[in-house]
Amino acid sequence: MKKILGLLTSLALVLSLVSSTASAKPNEDNKASKDKSTHVQIVLFDGFDLLDALAPYEVFAAAGMYTKGAITVELVSAEGKRSVPSGLNGPSLEAKTALDPKRPGIILVPGASGKPAGNSEDAIPNILKQAMKTGLPDMLKQAFDNKEVTVATVCGGTLLPAMKGLLKDRHAVTNHIGMAALGALGAIPIEARVVEDGPSFVSGGGVTSGLDVALYLVDRELGPQVANSVEKLFEYEKRGTVWKAEGITPVDFNTSPQAPEQKQPAANSVSNTQK
């Protein structure tokens, strides 16, 4: 009888241990899943372009919806929680917290919205210059130095890290009106919709390229099925091939030396031959 009671006690102990382990496993799995999620910080600054910021925001938010939170997104600013006015007297958006360049994930920088040129306060060059006077450039440098962060830029947003000297000898694209400035700042301008210079830097050219940059990053981080679901939801297909410094370099017929022209026989040679 004592042996039977001992066996039952041992069995009860084993079952309780198995039960507690089993109940703890889902919590551990949930925690692991949460830890593996990709976090996106979209940076706002005074005069930012609404579409540059909101188009990627919606793509990442939809991807998070389709994956039960495998990717999360929030609006941030260099100064912290505040209301940030967009360009062209547009509406303000609420930055929820300060940009954290040490947090692993993606940091996306939009461009500015304003007059394409000129010296007025609402001209894009001056809006970008004002942004350079904030703490944002130093934060971007920290982000570029962080191997766990991918910095993505949209349209004129590419010029901000370039103005800080962070894109020297790196392939990048911006709005077509800023390509010459991008080259003058030390970057290698590439005429493409989206350019990836290594896994840590992705840039997009043109205002609507924010959709393409975000869809590419969703595809890269979460896979094509999720990206395809977001495309179907938005009724929009990602534009362009993502340019990378990989594979065979195509021939540039504008700079390649032409084949030497075939010399025509001299007139007297022709006449001599005919004789």
Can you describe this structure?
With 275 residues, the protein is α/β, with parallel strands linked by helices. Helix content is 41%, strand content 17%. The chain has helices spanning 2-35, 50-66, 124-132, 136-145, 159-163, 179-184, 209-222, 224-234, 267-274, and strands at residues 38-44, 71-77, 82-85, 92-95, 97-98, 105-109, 149-154, 171-172, 188-189, 194-196, 201-204, 243-244. An 8-stranded mixed sheet has the order 5-2-1-6-7-11-10-12, sandwiched between helices. A hairpin with a 4-residue loop joins strand 10 (194-196) and strand 11. The chain is globular, with a radius of gyration of 28 Å.
Keywords summarizing the entry:
single chain; 275 residues; alpha/beta; 9 helices; 41% helix
Mean pLDDT: 86
Order of helices and strands: HEHEEEEEHHEHEHEEEHHEH
Rounded radius of gyration (Å): 28 Å
Say how many strands there are.
12
Order of strands across the main sheet = 5-2-1-6-7-11-10-12
Uncertain regions spanning at least 5 consecutive residues:
1-34, 259-275
Helix content: 40-55%
Terminal Cα separation, in Å?
A: 131 Å
How much of the sequence is in beta strands? 15-25%
Main β sheet profile: 8 strands, mixed
Tertiary shape: globular
The number of helical segments is: 9
Specify the structural class: alpha/beta
Can you lay out the helices and strands and say which pair or pack?
Layout lengths: L1 H34 L2 E7 L5 H17 L4 E7 L4 E4 L6 E4 L1 E2 L6 E5 L14 H9 L3 H10 L3 E6 L4 H5 L7 E2 L6 H6 L3 E2 L4 E3 L4 E4 L4 H14 L1 H11 L8 E2 L22 H8 L1
Parallel strand pairs: 1-2, 1-6, 2-5, 6-7, 7-11, 8-9, 10-12
Antiparallel strand pairs: 3-4, 10-11
Helix pairs in contact: 2-7, 2-8, 7-8
